[in-house]
Write a structure and sequence with these properties.
Length: 149
């Protein structure tokens, strides 16, 4: 895990963690939290899926900016959270996210790896025989699958 200073806040970033997605909005019970921890979850959230899977299938670069709003109920050094605390943190996170996205727009090409398998996921993803692909369907999909259609 890398600690970085970003926009006057310390940001922890981690590559290659395990994200557990749950239905929300809700807080986990202590039993659920302990179960997720036993599974090796690094972060528990309510978004990111199925967006990440769909983006990969379409060879679309996808990055998640996960900004923590609260600690789960298992954490021994924190009291239970309430909605007011979460909304305050969410507002701070919103401001930080805007700054991150602004910088990402400028620098994103520096992070593209030519060897990333995401570059050619579609090569073997479309199983409809070429002669069965209608012009209407190809036109509809040209922005996400034009390279292989």
């Amino acid at each position: 895990m890398l600690a970085k200073r970003l926009f006057n806040r310390e940001i922890l970033s981690q590559k290659d963690g395990t994200y557990l997605v749950m239905e929300g909005p809700q807080f986990s019970t202590l039993a659920e939290s302990e179960l997720y921890r036993s599974w090796g979850a690094d972060v528990i959230g309510m978004t990111n899926m199925p967006e990440a899977k769909l983006a990969r299938e379409a060879e679309i670069r996808y990055a998640s900016i996960s900004m923590i709003t609260d600690f789960d109920c298992w954490h021994p050094d924190h009291d239970n959270v309430d909605v007011k605390q979460i909304i305050e943190t969410l507002s701070q996170n919103s401001s930080n996210a805007k700054k991150v996205v602004k910088n990402l727009i400028i620098d994103f090409e520096k992070f593209i790896d030519a060897q990333d398998p995401t570059n050619n996921c579609l090569d073997f993803a479309i199983i409809t025989a070429p002669e069965k692909r209608t012009k209407k369907t190809k036109d509809k999909l040209k922005n996400i699958a034009g390279r292989v259609l």
